[in-house]
Amino acid sequence: MSEKPKVAFYWCSSCGGCEESIIDLAEDILKVVEAVDIVFWPVAIDIKKKDVEAMPDGSIAVTFINGAIRMSEQAEMVKMLRRKSGLIVAHGSCSHLGGIPGLGNFWNKETIFNRSYHTTPSTENPDGTVPLESVIVEGEEMTLPAFWDTVKTLDQVIDVDYYLPGCAPPRDLILNALGAILEGKLPPKGSVLSPNKSLCDDCDRNESKPEKLEMLEIKRPWEILADPEICFLAQGIICMGPATRTGCGERCIIANMPCRGCFGPTDQVYDQGAKFLAALGSIIETNDEKEIEKIVDTIVDPAGTFYRFSLPSSILRRRRMEAIK
Amino acid sequence: MNNESFEPKIVGFLCNWCSYTGADLAGTARMVYAPNVRIIRVMCSGRVDPQFVLKAFSEGADGVLISGCHPGDCHYQEGNYKTLRRYKLLNKVLEQFGIEEDRFRLEWVSAAEGAKFQHICNEFTDQVRELGPLNLNGGNQ
User: What does pLDDT average to over chain B?
Assistant: First the structure.
């Protein structure tokens, strides 16, 4: 019997990038493996659900769960992992805030299925087959997990101890989190394991920001060749930096792309999209109602832009079901 | 519930310097108007964080009214212009959340316009009653 703490990793509605973020620890992963026993990790080791069920409750020191929750099977798995684990860490934007899959909350199951299985130009489905939760084949019932209308964050389904933000979380934050857990030097429960200030605070382009930010027109990143030294907002490009937590190492900014908000808001903010909307309202530089409308109309998909990663964790959480046709 | 017997809940954010005083005038002048607007006094319409509006809708409001000083009259010079820009942005976002434009209203009411406040409360209440309940009370699942 080894004395090493047990660690598990699990995935829900995600792209695989968060798994990659663990692999990207590169040679440091060897130090991790030296310090802990990885007891469950579907992407890398062959341990089945029944094996986890057989583990005593609370026997896993910490489980890192990535991905949003949008299917019954995911909810069942994370509830089981909650019982088996001392600590649950929401790993990455999707489990923290809902992430990109969370944009599905502008739709519902019916409209998503219709698009995926019927109307996409690449779909060839002459029999109109769609996945069913239950089907009888040769007298035997076969089942699939239920697909929900609404995508949820991990903490809307189970109790979460810590959040590792980012799409995907950067290597230094993961290593810091693992180190803190192993040494028992953890911040208060519920903390997001990244500094509690906005990205603009750390941004290298902050000094290029004019005394008074003014936006007279809004451009999408592909419409101009962005100056790599100057604040994106000063160039008329929507950058979520003011409403987004820092700690990402400015990966996008360094690649000359504006912040899209994957780290979510700081602790003081409930709703990242609304907070960014307030900031943008302050810097649109016209007081003429018609001019304002003209500028607002140039923002393609404002809700999808301001809530790109945070729709399920926002105050309204989703589009009203009654409003979906 | 049919729309005739439905009494909409409306949250009204009124600025301290113009609109709240205008509403006060409507009261002291004994003007009769729909009682559906629950008034919250704020120092400036520019103080109304868009989060307040979303919170109101998510916790059961069927309509939200923001009212401030007329353009050019803001006690803080341009708070109401910021409100105007945020209102235009938020209206577009609310539409994507399936909340109709007619449930969210921005009005300029001066301290002397008690009658205008009376008219707005009546008209907005009728307009929201027409749309029916928003049914977000208890959160959007």
Answer: 94
Same domain? For A166 and A205 the reply is: no
A26 is a domain residue: yes
Q: Pick from A168, A194, A220: which residue ends a domain?
A: A194
Residue A89 lies in a domain: yes
The answer to whether the CB atoms of B84 and A280 lie below 8 A apart is no
ipTM value: 0.93
Asked if residue A325 belongs to a domain, the reply is no
Contact (CB<8Å) B85/A324 = no
Instruction: Of B49, B26, B122, give the one whose Cα is nearest residue A277.
Output: B49
**Rounded-to-integer distance, Cα A50 and Cα A164, Å:** 28
Query: Domain span at residue A205?
Result: 199-313
The residue type found at A252 is: C
pTM: 0.94
**Tens of pLDDT, residues A90-149:** 999 999 999 999 999 999 999 999 999 999 999 999 999 999 999 999 999 999 999 999
Under an 8 A CB cutoff, do A278 and B141 touch? no
In this structure, the answer to whether residues A187 and A212 fall within a common structural domain is no
Q: Kindly indicate the confidence band of residue B136, based on its pLDDT and cuts at 50, 70 and 90.
A: confident
Residue written as tokens 């583990």? A55
Rg (CA), chain A: 22
Q: How many domains does chain A have?
A: 2
Q: What is the DSSP code (8-state) at residue A114? A: H
CA–CA distance, A162 with A90 (Å, rounded to integer)? 6
- Would you say residue A306 lies in a domain? yes
Contact criterion met (CB below 8 Å) for B98 and A317: no
E strand residue ranges, A138-206:
140-143, 147-152, 162-164
Degrees (nearest 5) of the Cα angle A53, A163, A320? 90
- Shared-domain flag, residues A62 and A175: yes
pLDDT in tens, B107-127: 999 999 999 999 999 999 999
pLDDT attached to residue A2: 58
- The Cα of A213 is separated from the nearest Cα of chain B by a number of Å equal to 14
Q: CATH topology for B10-131?
A: Rossmann fold (3.40.50)
Q: How far apart are CA A164 and CA A173, in angstroms?
A: 7
Q: Which of A274, A296, A320 is the closest to B99 by Cβ?
A: A320
How many helices (H) and strands (E) would you count in chain B? 4, 4
